[in-house]
Q: What sequence folds into this?
């Protein structure tokens, strides 16, 4: 550690506050806190500047965006494109003699996140405090070692991103095939049934918990669901073991354009009282039902203006086409190969993410050196 030196944070970086005033005609990518996944260091979506009505910050490609509102959510990303972002997000660039990619992982390290959280201001809407953070001291390696550390961690993230892109492509292929066979080529003679005929629902097996209990469980998240702690790794009885489809019951139940928000966890897991849980009945498969629902607008069954809700009867009452057996089997044979690949990729993503999360604090503290790897 002899070549590591102490620096205050403001010697390494400081927030860039280039202001953007919306005019309704610009075409910039927009990132708000809602577009950044909690803890995963990934974007879940991207907004557009034409929807923005208040002042924002400008950011450049490879700037680091750090969510300062409730910093314990660890909303940190480094987009490969420029745009505008919420003023509840800090924009960081490394100063001279510091590596930008290293700075990204330094700011994403739980040691820094927890420090930012400890100095937050406000009670109802706690925010990280720059006046506190800028004077905190950190031991950092030389620029060559910073670059080497960032390369190790970036190689893991590059593979994770590749697997995510593969999964997205496979799912798009399955959706395209479904749309062609069961929508565009659908025949008038096909019977229209109800979703309840094709699935078994297990909502009664859920265990309701209070908001206070959910807060205590956040540390055990294994499989994020609507940004909440729904699948835990330390609950004594896992309730569910296998492959299921999860669909929101209340709260955020649909996308802006009216399609359901779904998950397909596999293995042992626990689900709170804000999701419908179901499996396909034969001859259907879970992935067939999942692809069908991904392309079904559910706006008509969502009730409640303040708290959107889909009750079980509304879920079972969704119109469901009963296609000929030969066409159903052909689609299932093709799509199941895609789904198996998606599951394999997802396991790899989990393994690589765990490896990154294990290495990150050790490399940042000098406990593990790149030369040892």
A:
């Amino acid at each position: 550690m002899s070549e590591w030196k102490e620096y205050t944070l403001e010697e390494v970086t400081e927030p860039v506050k280039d202001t953007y005033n919306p005019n309704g005609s610009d075409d910039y990518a927009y990132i708000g806190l809602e577009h950044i996944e909690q803890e995963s260091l990934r974007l879940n979506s991207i907004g557009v500047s034409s929807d923005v009505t208040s002042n924002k910050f400008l950011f450049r490609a490879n700037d680091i965006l750090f969510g300062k509102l409730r910093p314990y959510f660890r909303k940190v990303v480094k987009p490969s494109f420029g745009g505008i972002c919420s003023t509840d997000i800090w924009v960081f660039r490394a100063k001279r003699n510091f590596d930008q990619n290293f700075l990204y992982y330094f700011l994403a390290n739980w040691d820094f996140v927890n420090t930012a959280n400890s100095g937050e201001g406000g009670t109802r809407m706690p925010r990280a405090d720059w006046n506190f953070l800028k004077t905190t001291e950190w031991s950092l390696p030389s620029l060559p070692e910073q670059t080497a550390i960032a390369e190790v961690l970036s190689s893991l993230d590059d593979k994770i991103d590749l697997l995510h892109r593969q999964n997205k492509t496979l799912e798009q292929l399955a959706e395209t095939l479904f749309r062609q066979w069961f929508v565009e080529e659908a025949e008038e003679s096909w019977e229209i049934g109800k979703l309840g005929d094709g699935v078994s629902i297990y909502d009664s097996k859920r265990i309701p918990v209070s908001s206070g209990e959910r807060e205590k469980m956040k540390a055990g998240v294994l499989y994020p669901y609507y940004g909440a702690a729904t699948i835990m790794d330390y609950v004594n009885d896992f309730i569910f073991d296998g492959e299921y489809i999860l669909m929101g019951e209340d709260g955020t139940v649909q996308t802006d354009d009216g399609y359901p928000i779904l998950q397909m966890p596999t293995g042992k897991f626990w689900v709170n009282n804000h999701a419908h849980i179901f499996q396909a009945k034969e001859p259907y498969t879970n992935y067939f039902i999942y692809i069908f629902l991904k392309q079904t607008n559910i706006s008509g069954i969502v009730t409640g203006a303040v708290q959107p809700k889909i009750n079980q009867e509304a879920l079972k009452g969704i119109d469901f086409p009963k296609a000929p057996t030969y066409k159903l089997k052909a689609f299932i044979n093709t799509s199941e190969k895609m789904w198996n690949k998606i599951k394999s990729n997802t396991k790899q993503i989990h393994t690589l993410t765990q490896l990154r999360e294990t290495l990150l604090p050790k490399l940042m503290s000098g406990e593990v050196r790149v030369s040892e790897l």
